[in-house]
Each structure stands twice: as C-alpha cells, then as structure tokens.
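note to self: dont lose this again. the chain is below, predicted strucutre after it. 372 aa total, dont forget to put it in the shared folder this time
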Amino acid sequence: MSLLASTVRAMTDARTRRKARKKRRDKQRARKRSADAEPPRDDPRRNPPNLGDPWTLLVFASMQVQAAKPDPMAKYRSHQPDPLDFDYLITRFVNDPTPEVAFFVALFAELLDGELQLRCRDALNGYSGQLVPWVAALRDVDGYRAVRLTHVLGDFDQILIGARLRDGQEATCAVLIDHLDDFEITDAAFFVGAIDEVVGGESDPDVTAADMSLADARAWIEYGLKQNFILRDTATWPGCRPLVQWLVGHLPEGGDIHQPSTWEPDATKALLEEFFASTAGAVFDSRDHRYLLRELVESGTADPWRWSAARVGRVLESPLSEGDHPLKVLLDVPDILRVFIPFAHEQSGIREGLTAQALAALDWRDVDRRSA
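---
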C-alpha cells in the first residue's frame, strides 16, 4: 500500500472514531436531559403505582412483618413459609429505587419497628420519586369511632375501631378479647367499609353494642397485646397484629384498661345459700360441695350468674386440684353444674337456648369421659 493510501486510510479511521465518540457523548447527554426533565404523564415516576385497595395492602404488609418475627411456636406448626428478607428489600431499594419497591418500603416503614423501620425511613428520605398519596399520608390515619360488642354471657368483648385514611378510604378493625383466657386477644381482622355498616349488620340477639372512648379502646387493646398468646392462629391473627398495633398507636392516650366485673363475697355467699336452699340444690348441701361450688363459680369470668358452653368446657378440663377436694366430690362436678346453671340463668334472665348449650357441653363431656 502506498504512503498516500495509508495516510488517507488513517485519517478516515480517525474521523470514524471521532464520530463514534461524539455519537456516544450525544446519547449520554440526551439521557441526562431526559432524566432531569419532568417525566411524561404515563411515566411511573410521575404516576406512582396504585396496586390495589389500601387496607387490603396494609393487611398484606402486616402479615409479612409478623411472619418475619421470631415465632416461639414454630416447631409446633405444620408449615412455616419463608419470611420476607427486609434487609434485601431495603438494599435493593437503595440501589434501584423503583416506584413499586418504594410503595412497599413505605408500608413497611409504618409497620416495622426498631432498626429495620429506621432503615426504611432513611431510604425513603433519599427517594426523589412520588408516592401514592394515601401511602405518603399514612401517619394521618384517623381513628374516629370505637364500639364495644359484649356477649351476654361475658365470655368475650369485641372492640371495633372505625378508621379512615386521608383519601377517605375506610376500614373497621375488629379485635376479639377472650375473658376466659386472662383478657387474651384471640382474633382480629380488618373489614373494608365504615364502622357504621359493621355495627348495623350485627344481628346476634345475645350481643349488645355500646360506644366507648377511643382512649379506652387503645388502653384495652394494648393491654391485651401484652398478654401471652397461645398457639391459636386464625386466617388473620396474629398476621394483622402489626397493623392493629399501628392503628391503636394513633388513637388518643390516657384511657382506662379493662376492669373485670367482680362479685362481692357477701353477694356470692347469698346466691349460693339460695341455691342450696332450693329443692335441686339441697341434694348437694354439704360442706365439701359448698366449697367445690364456690371454687367453680370463681372460674373463668368469675360470674356466678352466666355460664357458656366454652366456660363449662374449661371447668371440666381443669384439674381443680388446688382445692384438695375429695375424689367423690370432684366426680359430682357435672351433676352439680347441671342443676346450678339453670338456677343461675333463671335468676339472671339468660335465655333458655344459651342454658341448653351450656348443659349440652356438660352432657358431651360426660359421654366423652365415660367412653375414655
């Protein structure tokens, strides 16, 4: 190849390389201008994702948070799903802050606690995109009404809390408190809809509804959350526990905790005297049976007048060994309750259907015991 040809070829190659470098620079500048410009209307950075009903998503997030907590009963469960790796999620969000991940990090920032919550909030502080309005305003949730549903037999209370997000989306939180188990929360759930609709739909004739202060509702539920709960999972409990804690944390403080109803010793003594003076009770009028019945009426809710099938079952399952009762007297527990419960329910005006249920529990346990 001649010197001229070589020179021309070299100049051509140099121009080609310069054009290629310029083209790459132009593309980089164009990408930068595009990133700095306001996103178009259909860009997710301008319109952050709305992934579904707010309260349903909050329940989902709550279940993920609860599943990641240490579970002392794990070895007794047949199936344990792998919990969400929050550390990975936060790291991914910091490195690649997409709107979808930001959505869930914002939910978890409300429901987590401790270091993970702080990391979520720090990551969100560095996020330049927009959040869905209701997600951005979660701390403005408004718990505006509390209602207590009470069963006539006193086994449980259900506390309803009406809550509203800033965009007007409403839900009702229902927390079931079992008085047979030391004020334990045995179930809780969230229902999409106003609390008025939930209360209006209550049709159980044995349940009464009464408004309670928001501060008292918070005190009751927080007290229940502190109790040791037994392995008693439902479809939503304890999965929605973090969401319940979050909601009640936004209610007013200073309420009164639940005070169980107590019978004065003289009132209990008078009731038992009346029973043993009756025709049905006279059969058991002995010192040992009096001592036994007094211990029985102090069980469960400690209300001598009201006996549910559940309370009867708990009594029959308990050893009653602390009272050091003679065996022949302990064997009379089903029989003495079989006559005392109708007597007590008649005195307190409990309907016959509930009395029949309590007696059926006695009969079922008696059959089960004889067949064992």
